[in-house]
Every structure is written in structure tokens, then in C-alpha cells.
Amino acid sequence: MATLAFDPTNQLRQAVADSAARHHCLPFGSHHESALPYSSTPDKGIGSSHPQSLGPERYGACICGFYSPGPTTMLDDTAPLASLSVTHVYYDPDDQVSLLCAYLALLPQALCIVYTTLILSTREIEIVLMFAGQLGCEALNFLLKRLIKEERPRRIHGKGYGMPSSHAQFVAFWSVSVVLFLLVRHRPHPRASPGPDSKGGPLRNRPWSVLERVSFSLLAAAVAAATAWSRIYLNYHTPRQVVAGSMAGVVVALAWFAATSVARQTGLLAWGLDLPIARLLRLRDLIVSEDVCQAGWEKWERRNKAKTG
After folding, report:
1. Which residues cross the membrane (predicted)?
2. DSSP secondary structure string, 144-182?
3. Are residues 225 and 211 in contact, defined by beta-carbon separation less than 8 angstroms?
4. Tens digits of per-residue pLDDT, 166-223?
């Protein structure tokens, strides 16, 4: 007669395995840990961010039904997460130049905030047009990258294609637009202000001198050049990609300045400012021929003079 052998150890091992499978438990030190999309660091307690290894205590509680690891530890329910890296920049913490380059990498975001603030506070159509050209330049960069499809440097930190550099193209457009506005388009005329100066006469609205305009233009160009160079230093782009982005930004800025000049000369801009939507938004065109800051101050002086008079 055949005798059936009963092995309580094997029976217990099988029961534990079945219970673990039902509760999605993963034994401490299991060879399946490497299959999970998390770090291989063992579990360190209730608040641990490494859920793939439960540890002996939790594993025992899990197979008894007293603890559930939750969806983050289930092999079939894990999903990769993405980060919103608008202001995320990699740099060497031991290198002060690298830190400065990381701050320069945030210049495009800062300039977008400046554009928006100036538009909302002044309603100047010149600033609206400059920002529209800036966004158009960004859209062109988006298309060029997907047409050229050139990868970033091999020691890559950024994601996506690298040709041309969007940072270099952005700051090149901005700096050239500022230079063209200050040296070509902005022509305010000095006039008397109702407030008295130190000698008792009327104050004069003095526009920026040529030296002041050239100095600010050189500063804008230097900041743009430093920002473009920082992309190479941080290893986000090759020199070729940065040069291509800078050239694209300069070309787009020149073309946009020419287009807006034609719109002014042909009366197209004046027609647009007379549209109901433009009037509703209180859009105006004063900054080309007037110092807006000085004009606001003169209005304040007239109001104070009327109160005291």
C-alpha cells in the first residue's frame, strides 16, 4: 500500500505564498524587487518612500491581512510620474560659475513676467507687439527643433532636441528688440513740466541721452551673450546649437521690427488701435514719443498743484 507523506513545512510555505499573492505582499529581500520602478533601498518604516520591500514585520502582517501595502507597491498598478520642470536647472553645487549660469537659465521666465507686468500696467501696444514677436520666435524654435531633430550633448542634462538652443534664441530676440527700440524707434521730445526745479523754473522732461541708451543696449547684449554661453557651460547645448539659436533670434527680431515699422508707416497700427477690442482693453501708443514714467509724474504734479492752488 502506498503511503502519502505529509510535509507540514511545505504546506506552511505554500499557504504563506498564497496569502502573499492575494494581498500583493513582497517579501523582504525578494529577488522581485529589481522589477519595480523604485529605488532598491529596503523599507525603513511606515513613512518610507521605498515601498518595494516590506520588511519582515510588515510582511508577516501583510500575509495575515492586517496590512496592505497599497497601490504604490503593486507590480501591476505602478505608473511613472513626470515633473513640471519649468524652473528646474542642473548645476554643479561646488562651482559658483555653474550656480550663476543656473540663475541665467531662468532669464526667459523672468522676462515673460516682466512683459506681462508691463503690458497690464501700461497697456502700451509697443510692448504687446514685442511680446507677440517673442512668442512667435519661441514657436519657430519649437518647429525647428522638431524638423532638425539634433540631439543634445552626449553628457546630457536637458530633455528633447537641442538644435537650435531655445534659451539663446529667446535672449537674442529680446536683446536685439531692446536695442532697436532704444536706438531707432524711441524718440521722446523734451518739454516743460509744471513743477518747479531747484532754480524756480519749470522742470524739463529730459529723455535718455545717447550715452545712456547705448549703455543700456550694451548691457542687454551682454546679458544675452552670458545667458547663451551658460547653456554650453551647463552642458545643455553644444556651441553650434547656441550659435544657431542666437542667429535665429537676431534674424526674427530684425524681421519683426521691420514688419511693425511697416504697420506704423502704413497706418495699419493706428487702425488696429481704433478697433472696439483695442479700445476696450485701453491699448495706447505713447511710449515711442513719450516718457511714460515722466508723463505719469507730471499728471501727479498737476493734480497736487490744483489742490494747493
Report:
1. 100-121, 165-184, 214-234, 241-259
2. HHHHH-----SS--S-S--SS-HHHHHHHHHHHHHHHII
3. no
4. 999 999 999 999 999 988 887 776 655 455 544 545 555 566 777 888 899 999 999 9
Residues 6+ apart with CB under 8 A from 40: 33, 34, 50, 52, 53
Cell output for 298: 507730471
What is the residue type of 308?
T
pTM comes to 0.67
235: left (phi over 0), alpha (psi -120 to 50) or beta: left
| Cell numbers placing 59 | 510582511
Neighbours of 6 (CB within 10 A): 7
Which residues is 202 bridged to in the sheet?
Answer: 196
Q: In whole numbers, what is the pLDDT of the chain averaged over residues?
A: 75
Residues 6+ apart with CB under 8 A from 159: 85
CA-based end-to-end distance of the chain: 127
Describe the crossing of helices 210-233 and 96-104 by its angle, rounded to 10 degrees.
Answer: 110
CA distances from 262 to 36, 133, 135, 188, 230 (A): 61, 15, 20, 20, 36
Pairing verdict, β 192-196 and 202-204? antiparallel
128 touches 156 (CB < 8 A): no
Q: Are residues 47 and 2 in contact, defined by beta-carbon separation less than 8 angstroms?
A: no
Angle, helices 166-180 vs 239-265, to 10°: value is 40
Name the phi and psi angles at 48, rounded to 5.
Answer: -65, 145
- Give the three cell numbers for residue 187: 524718440
- Rounded to the nearest 5°, which phi and psi values hold at 49? -95, 10
Residue with cell 521730445: 189
What is the rounded distance in angstroms from the CA atom of residue 161 to the CA atom of residue 164?
Answer: 8
Query: Which one, of 280, 284, 281, lies nearest residue 296 by Cα?
Result: 284
* Host H or E run for residue 126: helix 125-148
Q: Work out the number of other CB atoms within 10 angstroms of the CB of residue 172.
A: 28
